[in-house]
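Re: the 343-residue chain
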Amino acid sequence: MMMMMMMSPASAVKMMMAAGLLALPRLLLGLLLLITTTTTMTAFMMLDGGQVVVVSAHQIARKVPPLACFGDAPVARMQIDVVRSDFSSLAATSSGSTLFALNNGEKAAFQFTISSENGKIEKIAEWNLTNIVADPEGIAYLGVNKAGHEFAITDENPSKVHMVTLQHGGGEITSSSVMTTAIDPPAMANLGFEGVANVPGEGLFVVQEQKPAALWFVAASRGVVTTPQKLVDTASTLGIDALSDITAAGGDAAEPAEVFVLSKAPKQITRLDISDRNNVKIIEQYAGAICGMKQPEAIAFTTASEDGKKVRMLVGGEPTELLIFEADVDCDKKTQFDGGCCI
């Protein structure tokens, strides 16, 4: 079953008693209680086959201020050498402390951390995805189970979305659950699903790179193969083409319903209102230092301070480039968009 919760730990316990959940093994009960904290937050969880998956129970900043608040220049530039090459997408865990990236050329996924004190990058694990996808381009965090972290990972051609558990410690991934059928008509070579975002309470939002560049919606459900719904041709309707990646506020939880699309034509970030899937609207656009990137391919948001008052925007590009921007959550600076930058 799926449920949404906004409550104190005491209320959560009362609810579980009423539902008979306190009869669950201690480990599962402990996982259930992980979704409650001393601060109010929204959490989604799935109970499936005796496993509890806590999906995007974010304590990290959900609110992303106007993109102008991040300024034109990043606070840090670095090379993510642990990815080696073909840096394709980026996702953060629910705590925001650990990052996951894809290398589509080698069909590999990586887990790493970046020290807030000295910027040191530490590789934690690596996974071989060769057995499940031909061209992994997008990754979105779904939750955690007893085996590892769960993600939605896109395969560009054929354009499908897979649910994948990246087991603790890394290794070879031999199986996945296909979440979608291929799109119709099929995408041309290297022009299919390029990025995916998980918006709890809504579903998955997926970007198709080109011809046409488009935003798709997937009403994700465990164990069910879903047909993607095309929402908008972004090139003809919104003026953004060559889509690279997509994410939602606070990693992959959005309040309100909005997503951030990274593109290469022009090189920029476009913030979209998805509250009405039949009428997707541009909220704002931002270019800044992204103009100078060789090939922007990845975007994610995490917290930048323990008190949650600062938010960090990470933009990655091929081969291993990463730009880190920071802003105050409560900043209200208006975006003065100049029409983007170079293609």
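Confidence is low (pLDDT under 50) at residues 1-61.
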